[in-house]
C-alpha cells in the first residue's frame, strides 16, 4: 500500500479556505490517509480550524491524522506539500492603512492586493515571511512542493525563486478556471464544453484561444458569440457572485478593444491600468461601474459570514462540501500518484513567453505528474497584450529588486511606474505617499525601510 503524504498548512486560521482545499483532498483516494499539519500563530483560530477539519475528515471517510502547531518549523518537518495562505497585517490594521493613506493623498483603489501602492506595501510586509518559510523548508523538508496562495502573487513568487531557487514552488490563483466558468454562465453553456489556452502574468493573463465543443465534437471559436452577447446586453450576467457592486463591465470593454478576454475581475483590472479611476471623473466610475473600496467592504462581509459559517460548522454533525475550483488537490494527487494533470500556475519565465522579460513571473499551463510541476512553452504573445503586461511587470521588477537589495529608492521607483498611480499623482506626490505608507505601517514592514 502506498504511503500517505504529509500536507502542512501555513496560515491554517483561514478556516474557510482550509475547508475548501481539504474538502478536495479528502475526496481523493490517494490522499485520504494524509497527515494534515495545521499551523497558525493564532491558537484560537487554529483550534477552530482543527474542529472543522476533523469533522470534514470524518464526513469524507478519511482516516489520516491531524496535528496542530503554532511553531512553523515544527509543522514543516518532513512535509511533502506546503500550502501557504495568510495575510500579513490582516484587514486591520494593514488593509485599512493601505486604503485610507492612499485616499488622503487623492488615490482611490478597488482591491489593492496586486499592484499599486497597496500591492507594493503588501509585498513588502509579506515577502520576509515567505522567505522564512523557504528557509525552514530548506532545513526540514527540502523536497516538498510549496503551493502558494498569497498575494501579491507575482511579486511574492518572484522574490522566492530569486532568493531560494532550489525550493519547488508554484503560485496559485483561481482566476483562469474561475473566469472560464463565468464566461460559460454568461453564455448559458456548460463549462465542461470549453477548451482554452491562456497565458500572461498573474491577474493579467488572456485567453489566447477560447472555444466550445459542438454537437459533432468539433470546436468553434467562442469570441464572436461572446462579443455579440455583450453588445446585445445579454452578457455579463448581473450579480454572478451575489455581489451587486461588481458588474464586470471593465473586462468586457477591454475585450472589445483588445480582442482577447482577461482572467482577473473587472474590479481588479480597473486599478492595473490608467483609464478607469481618475479624480473628478465620476462619469468613468459610473459608466464602467467601478466599485471603489471594494476590498475593505468585502473583508467586512467575509468576516461576518465567516463567524456565521464557523458556528454552523462547529455545531454540524457532518460537513459535506462540493468540490472547489482550487488546483491544490489536483497538484498533490498528480505528484503523489504520477497521474498527470494540467493546471495554470505562476512560475519563472525561463523561455516560456518570448516577448516578456526572462526571469519575470508568468502564468502559464503546467503539466503536473510524478516529476513535479512542469511549465509549458507559450511562445510569443500578441504584441499589444505583452505591452499591457509590461506596464505591470515594471512595478514587479522594481519592487522585487527593492526587497532583494534592501533599496528604499526602488520602492519609490516601483510606485512611480504603477500605471494607475502615475495617471493620478505627480512625482513628488508619489514620493510623499510612499513615505506616509511606510511610516503608517511601521513595524509591519522590514526594518531596512526605516533606516
Automatic annotation (TrEMBL):
Record note on cofactor: Binds 1 NAD(+) per subunit.
GO biological process: carbohydrate metabolic process
Amino acids binding Mn(2+): 173, 203
InterPro entries from the UniProt entry: GH4_Enzyme_sf, GlycHydrolase_4_CS, Glyco_hydro_4, Glyco_hydro_4_C, Lactate_DH/Glyco_Ohase_4_C, NAD(P)-bd_dom_sf
Residues annotated as binding substrate: 151
Entry cofactors: Mn(2+); NAD(+)
UniProt KW Metal-binding keyword: yes
First-tier enzyme category under EC: hydrolase
Pfam families (alphabetical): Glyco_hydro_4, Glyco_hydro_4C
Superkingdom classification of source: Bacteria
Catalytic activity: Hydrolysis of terminal, non-reducing alpha-D-galactose residues in alpha-D-galactosides, including galactose oligosaccharides, galactomannans and galactolipids
Site-annotated residues for Increases basicity of active site Tyr: 113
Subunit structure of this chain's protein: Homodimer.
UniProt family annotation: Belongs to the glycosyl hydrolase 4 family.
Identification of the protein by name: Alpha-galactosidase
Annotated source species: Escherichia coli
Gene symbol of the encoding locus: melA
Amino acid at each position: 500500500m502506498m504511503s500517505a503524504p504529509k500536507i502542512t498548512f501555513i496560515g491554517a486560521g483561514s478556516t474557510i479556505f482550509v475547508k475548501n482545499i481539504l474538502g478536495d483532498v479528502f475526496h481523493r483516494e490517494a490522499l485520504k490517509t494524509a497527515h494534515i499539519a495545521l499551523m497558525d500563530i493564532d491558537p484560537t483560530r487554529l483550534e477552530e480550524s482543527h474542529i472543522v477539519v476533523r469533522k470534514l475528515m470524518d464526513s469524507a471517510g478519511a482516516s489520516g491524522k491531524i496535528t496542530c502547531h503554532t511553531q512553523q518549523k515544527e509543522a514543516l518537518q518532513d512535509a511533502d506539500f506546503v500550502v501557504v495562505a495568510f495575510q500579513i497585517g490582516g484587514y486591520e490594521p494593514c488593509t485599512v492603512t493601505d486604503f485610507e493613506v492612499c485616499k488622503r493623498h487623492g488615490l482611490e483603489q478597488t482591491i489593492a492586493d496586486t499592484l499599486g501602492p497597496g500591492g507594493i506595501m503588501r509585498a513588502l510586509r509579506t515577502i520576509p515571511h515567505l522567505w522564512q518559510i523557504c528557509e525552514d523548508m530548506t532545513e526540514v523538508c527540502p523536497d516538498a512542493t510549496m503551493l502558494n496562495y498569497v498575494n501579491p502573487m507575482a511579486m511574492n513568487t518572484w522574490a522566492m525563486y530569486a532568493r531560494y531557487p532550489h525550493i519547488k514552488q508554484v503560485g496559485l490563483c483561481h482566476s483562469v478556471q474561475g473566469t472560464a466558468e463565468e464566461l460559460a454562465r454568461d453564455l448559458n453553456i456548460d463549462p465542461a464544453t470549453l477548451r482554452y489556452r491562456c497565458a500572461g502574468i498573474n491577474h493579467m493573463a488572456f485567453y489566447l484561444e477560447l472555444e466550445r465543443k459542438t454537437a459533432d465534437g468539433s470546436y468553434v471559436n467562442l469570441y464572436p458569440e461572446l462579443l455579440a452577447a455583450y453588445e446585445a446586453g445579454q452578457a455579463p450576467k448581473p450579480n454572478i457572485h451575489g455581489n451587486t457592486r461588481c458588474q464586470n463591465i471593465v473586462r468586457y470593454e477591454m475585450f472589445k478593444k483588445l480582442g482577447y478576454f482577461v482572467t482577473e475581475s473587472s474590479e481588479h483590472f480597473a486599478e492595473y491600468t490608467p483609464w478607469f479611476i481618475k479624480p473628478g471623473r465620476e462619469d468613468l466610475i459610473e459608466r464602467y461601474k467601478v466599485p471603489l473600496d471594494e476590498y475593505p467592504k468585502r473583508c467586512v462581509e467575509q468576516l461576518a459570514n465567516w463567524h456565521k459559517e464557523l458556528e454552523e460548522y462547529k455545531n454540524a454533525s457532518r460537513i459535506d462540501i462540493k468540490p472547489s475550483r482550487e488546483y491544490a488537490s489536483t497538484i498533490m494527487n498528480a505528484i503523489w500518484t504520477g497521474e498527470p494533470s494540467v493546471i495554470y500556475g505562476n512560475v519563472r519565465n525561463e523561455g516560456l513567453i518570448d516577448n516578456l522579460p526572462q526571469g519575470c513571473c508568468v502564468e502559464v499551463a503546467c503539466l503536473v505528474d510524478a516529476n513535479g510541476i512542469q511549465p509549458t512553452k507559450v511562445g510569443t504573445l500578441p504584441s499589444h497584450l505583452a505591452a499591457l503586461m509590461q506596464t505591470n511587470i515594471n512595478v514587479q521588477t522594481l519592487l522585487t529588486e527593492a526587497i532583494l537589495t534592501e533599496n528604499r529608492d526602488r520602492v519609490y521607483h516601483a510606485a512611480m511606474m504603477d500605471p494607475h498611480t502615475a495617471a493620478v499623482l505627480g512625482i513628488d506626490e508619489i514620493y510623499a505617499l510612499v513615505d506616509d505608507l511606510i511610516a503608517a505601517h511601521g513595524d509591519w514592514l522590514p526594518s531596512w525601510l526605516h533606516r
